[in-house]
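Sample A.
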Amino acid sequence: MKYFRHFREYPFITVLIGSTLLLTLIGYLGKNNIYDGYSVDLWKAPQLTVVLESIKDRNYPWKIASSGNKEVDEVNDVSAFENDNESEISPDMGKQYGEDGHKKDTDNNKETDADIDTDTDTDTDTDTDAKVDKNTETDTDADTKQEDGKTTYRFTKVNTDYFDDALFIGDSRTVGLSEYSGWNNPTFYADSGLTIYDVFDKEIAVMDGKKMTIEKALEKKSFGKIYIMLGINELGTGNTETFIAEYKKVIEKIQRLQPGTILFVEGIMNVSRKKSDSDPIFNNINIKDKNDHLALLADNKDIFYIDVNEAITDETGGIPIEYTFDNIHLKAAYYSLWTDFLLEHGVVREK
């Protein structure tokens, strides 16, 4: 150790040690605000790995100064799932969700998110996710609604040929849909490890026998409808804020590449109750938090939010254990629940 007494003679080591200590300190200072969605095993990796991981997500250390502390009991206390009677839903979302965090269900019909009504009992003009009408069994003449001078659209039943010009983008769940839906005409750009952060980077689209990125494929072929389900792989990376910010960028790019397309933001499919209760990261509390924010991206004109959990999950909010082989993915026989849900939630816009 005598060779390290004079640090000026070893500037690289000095900088390395100093930056390690600094990043570790930043990680601890920001663990309750900008790094609250990151997880690290301190026995295997130092706190600075959180800082480095967040930089990769464009979540830079200097944001600490402008970030307030946020409670992270949802992540740290998985058992709270059992007692989550007061869900953390924004006031705008309250009209769509019940106290248990699930879509309200009356008259034996599922609520649909796209049927927008104006809330006349409030003075605020920010209630874009207002009351939801549940008449999904309508003809195309009743599938539009005027709101603030803008035409919005209800969900309606459709046939399988509705998906002939549809594109499904997603991770391993969408890979399963492509294999077990029985639908041959839709296009699927899906990969087991796909995330919202690398959706345009991976060469997973196949066109004319050639692999290319989804961005390149969208430049070559137009689609009438585009469905996106991403988010399960992102639960251990970043936080809801960074996830939604990146999701918005993806939507904006798709709209530039595919002007006029109907875009469906699919809620992240839940995991089983067993998985949710035992995993501090991949649990239904974290999924619900992201889904609540994804729902706010819908304008019910060009962008629509749909949540297949309405058709798949049981009273616990999880995938029934008999539906899944690994507590995360559906068994082949139960993909029909997903396809039936999609057939109930088409959007037919005026020409």
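Sample B, a different protein:
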Amino acid sequence: MSQRFASAQNAIAICDICGFQYKLRELRQLIVKGNKTNLKACPECWNPDQPQNRLGEFPIDDPQAVRDPRSDAAELAASRAHIQPINPSLVLGSGQIGQVVIVGAINALVVTVANPGVGNRYYVEGALQATMSLSEGSTYRIDQSDNSNSGHPLRFSTTSDGTWGGGSEYTTGVTYAGVPGNAGAYTQIVVAVGAPTLYYYCSNHSGMGGQANTP
């Protein structure tokens, strides 16, 4: 003979979580990690099982991904076409300390030549015979590609007006490229640690330059 149970319409029960009294029909069975338990909880204590524990419980009818996908050749070529080249104005210089390689940007200074009424003079970034500020350990490229620089090679010295002032050319860390007044022409200096105060001058004409501090 099978066992019969009462309807329990008005039966009272205790929540297995908080211990408070509720109607039996208000309690819900707890499911933990996908497994049903013998515990029953009131509406305030009952929570659905953690969703990650329910993986596989609900079938997924729609395909989720393509096996071994390959990019469209035209799309791949278009993405490569948008890769920007390195900005040529941000030329990099490098040095090495032990096993650590350091890379620093080259600072560009544009020089032009004009006659303010007293003869030809250098203009640094548009300023007449401006005092340059060259930090120790940094690299500076003095751009002389403007055609006004033709015949006016810029040099450095530890003496005001260089060889015109009785001094000599300063060459430590200094390199040259091209012919002044032509595209790509420049004088470049890697300022040495402990470098003295320098002066820039024209090797062909006196009185054109100015001071270059090395703080």
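Observation for Sample B: Residues 83-94, 99-103 have pLDDT under 50 and may be disordered.
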